[in-house]
């Protein structure tokens, strides 16, 4: 890779500044794939009373990226996903939108489409360079009412703000994680979810990365021990690029003490009683690589990456989830022509990185209390 690529080792584990993300170590992010940029628009706080929602845009390099999708949840909310079917015409997309607001929030994509048209980016449909139709796949998570106002949700202006924020970022700028963008109102089981991201450079030189909006109906941790499912998987597998989790909080294992766990259960029970019945949910992911993939290969990557959700959340892919994974391939590195199984290492990495990104989302999340409910963070329950 050329000189403007971050100086990550083959299986890197970098640490970004506290101004960018929380202080725990960072294993790279989606933007490690050259040309991808990520922008958030967050609706909440004093400026948006009643809101706890937002949108996140993954902006491809000009000319787009090969894209595919795999939907496993029983209650998805999506837009333009049929265009990603390998049997259909569109080969590349300029952006992917992840949004809160359930089906209402899909309006965010309209703002991204308008911005792309102004840039002349999209599928060329006429003789003039401005004659384009931007194809912008989108998917939503359910966070309605979590800020207290059921009608507070992202719209076209939110999507435009997110894509403009993405366009203004520098190449390889780390993704902001936690309570931002589409992860602002995210909840995993009974605890606060959010945005998480991770990346790895394989021995082949190919980079694979993931970004998730962790917002699952299932739990992200074992109810008997309080251990994060994803961290236990990482500990068990001993992957080099997960080793930074081994010493989290100075412990050499993934289990909180029984005393801490009992206190966490008490606090969660109090919050659950206050919040009432659990609402609908959805976990979204974008898995990207700088490898050259066909749409069919990208669809395989999207499908196998769902395994990463299953390792980090239990149960997963329920009827009240809309779990969706998008895959993007920028085409910088050709797969080895003499190896028909060259895709395998990318498939395996995609699933591993979705697991890591979900763990990072839960570790980066911050507790929230609004008129719509109380959502404690995992770190507030177990990290101290």
TL;DR of this structure?
The chain contains eight helices and 17 strands. With 384 residues, the protein is α+β, with helices and mostly antiparallel strands.
The helix content is: 25-40%
List SSEs in N-to-C order. EEEEEEHHEEEHEEEEHHEHEHEEH
Bulk shape:
globular
Separation, N- and C-terminal Cα atoms: 40 Å
Report the strand count: 17
Query: How much of the polypeptide forms β-strand, as a percent range?
Result: 15-25%
| Mean of pLDDT | 86
The biggest sheet, with number of strands, parallel, antiparallel or mixed sense and barrel status, is: 6 strands, mixed
Reconstruct the topology from this structure.
Blueprint: E1 37-44, E2 52-59, E3 65-71, E4 78-79, E5 92-93, E6 95-99, H1 102-105, H2 108-118, E7 123-124, E8 132-133, E9 138-140, H3 156-168, E10 187-188, E11 191-192, E12 194-201, E13 207-214, H4 229-237, H5 258-275, E14 284-291, H6 295-312, E15 324-333, H7 344-364, E16 368-370, E17 373-375, H8 378-383
Parallel strand pairs: 6-9, 14-15
Antiparallel strand pairs: 1-2, 2-6, 3-5, 3-15, 4-9, 7-8, 10-11, 12-13, 13-14, 16-17
Helix pairs in contact: 2-3, 4-7, 6-7
């Amino acid at each position: 890779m050329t000189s403007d690529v971050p100086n990550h080792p083959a299986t890197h584990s970098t640490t970004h500044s506290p101004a960018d993300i929380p202080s725990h170590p960072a294993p790279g992010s989606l933007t490690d794939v050259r040309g991808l940029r990520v922008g958030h628009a967050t609706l909440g706080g004093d400026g948006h009373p009643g809101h706890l929602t937002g949108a996140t845009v993954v902006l491809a390099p000009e000319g787009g990226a090969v894209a595919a999708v795999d939907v496993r949840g029983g209650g998805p909310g999506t837009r333009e996903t049929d265009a990603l079917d390998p049997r259909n015409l569109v080969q590349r997309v300029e952006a992917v939108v992840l949004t809160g607001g359930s089906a209402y929030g899909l309006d965010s994509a309209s703002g991204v489409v308008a911005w792309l048209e102004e840039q002349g980016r999209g599928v060329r449909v006429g003789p003039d360079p401005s004659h384009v139709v931007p194809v912008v796949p989108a998917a939503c998570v359910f966070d309605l009412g979590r800020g207290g106002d059921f009608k507070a949700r992202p719209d076209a202006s939110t999507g435009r703000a997110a894509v403009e924020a993405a366009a203004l970022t520098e190449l390889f700028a780390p993704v902001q994680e936690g309570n931002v963008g589409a992860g602002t109102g995210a909840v995993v089981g009974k605890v606060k979810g959010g945005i998480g991201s991770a990346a790895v450079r394989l021995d082949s030189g190919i980079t694979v990365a993931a970004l998730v909006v962790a917002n699952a109906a299932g739990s992200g941790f074992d109810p008997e021990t309080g251990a994060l499912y994803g961290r236990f998987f990482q500990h068990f597998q001993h992957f080099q690029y997960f080793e930074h989790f081994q010493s989290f909080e100075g412990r050499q294992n993934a289990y909180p003490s029984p005393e801490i766990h009992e206190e966490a259960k008490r606090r969660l029970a109090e919050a659950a009683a206050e919040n009432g019945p659990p609402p609908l949910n959805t976990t979204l992911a974008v898995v990207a690589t700088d490898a050259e993939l066909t749409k069919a290969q990208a669809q395989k990557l999207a499908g196998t990456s769902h395994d990463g959700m299953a390792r980090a959340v239990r149960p997963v892919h329920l009827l009240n989830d809309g779990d969706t994974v998008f895959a993007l391939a920028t085409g910088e590195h050709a797969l080895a022509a003499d190896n028909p199984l060259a895709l395998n290492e990318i498939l395996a990495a995609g699933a591993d990185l979705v697991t890591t990104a979900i763990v990072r989302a839960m570790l980066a999340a911050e507790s929230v209390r609004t008129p719509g409910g109380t959502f404690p963070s995992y770190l507030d329950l177990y990290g101290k």
